[in-house]
Specification:
CATH architecture: Alpha-Beta Complex
CATH topology: Fumarylacetoacetate hydrolase, domain 2
Protein name: Fumarylpyruvate hydrolase
Shape: globular
Number of helices: 5
Largest sheet: 6 strands, mixed
Pfam family, one: FAA_hydrolase
Structural class: alpha+beta
InterPro entries: Fumarylacetoacetase-like_C, Fumarylacetoacetase_C_sf
Keywords: Hydrolase, Metal-binding, Pyruvate
GO molecular function: acetylpyruvate hydrolase activity; metal ion binding
Strand content: 25-35%
Number of strands: 18
Length: 228
């Protein structure tokens, strides 16, 4: 007898580069304005702000290589980001032990309905309507940290139709990977399968139907997405 009253929800997974195994996703935490130049372009002073996070949903992940332009928006922006995948969790994780909790890394896009996000900001409301919609998190397979280490520097770029739109370096992150993990673990009980989208460099901008987005992070991977 099935103990569930409705069909069991699908468990979102990410492929693992070079493996037949899958990485199950539990939660997705996204840090806001984690590159100084991006904070400035969004009208904020990066030197005065503590870190803050919002969430996407696991089923926002899309591996198809196609991003369907979403409804209720006429201003959808690209944000290229490092994805940090946790292999173990906990609370109050010490900074010096934080990287021990990382299983691997990937490349992701935080697609944003900027107009809806802007309306929510003006009214003092949460951002999820602009951030956590269907297909809003295109991603690559995860690459194990046991193979690539823990990237703390290296180019992070995004091209749109071959033209460079975003360009930065992982060493420009205001809050580094261990700091994000330690901070989050003070406010949440982190778990195996959690993802952290680590922020985007300057150059975010709108996409149009038919655009091809090509993201790259040194030592981590490449992501190609077509806007449908």
């Amino acid at each position: 007898m099935n103990a569930h009253a409705i069909p069991t929800p699908f468990v979102t997974t990410l492929p693992i580069q070079g493996s037949d195994q899958l990485f199950p996703v539990r939660r997705i935490y996204c840090i806001g304005r984690n590159f100084a130049a991006h904070a400035v372009e969004m009208g904020h002073d990066p030197d005065r702000e503590p870190p803050f996070f919002f969430q996407k949903n696991p089923d926002n992940i899309d591996l198809s290589g196609t991003f369907p332009y979403p409804p209720k928006s006429n201003d959808v922006h690209h944000e290229i980001e490092l994805v940090v995948a946790l292999g173990q969790g906990g609370s109050d994780i010490p900074l010096e032990a934080a990287l021990d909790h990382v299983w691997g890394y990937g490349v992701g896009l935080d697609m944003t309905r900027r107009d809806l996000q802007g309306e929510a900001k003006k009214m003092g409301r949460p951002w999820e309507i602009g951030k956590a919609f269907e297909h809003s998190a295109p991603m690559t397979p995860i690459r194990p940290a046991s193979e690539i280490g823990h990237p703390s520097e290296g180019a992070i770029t995004l091209k749109v139709n071959g033209a460079l739109r975003q360009s930065g370096d992982l060493n420009q992150m205001i809050w580094k990977t261990p700091e994000m993990i330690a901070y989050l673990s003070e406010h949440f009980t982190l778990g195996a399968g959690d993802l952290i989208m680590a922020g985007t460099p300057a150059g975010v901008g709108p996409v149009e139907r038919g655009d091809r987005l090509e993201g790259h992070i040194d030592s981590v991977g490449d992501l190609s997405v077509v806007v449908a």
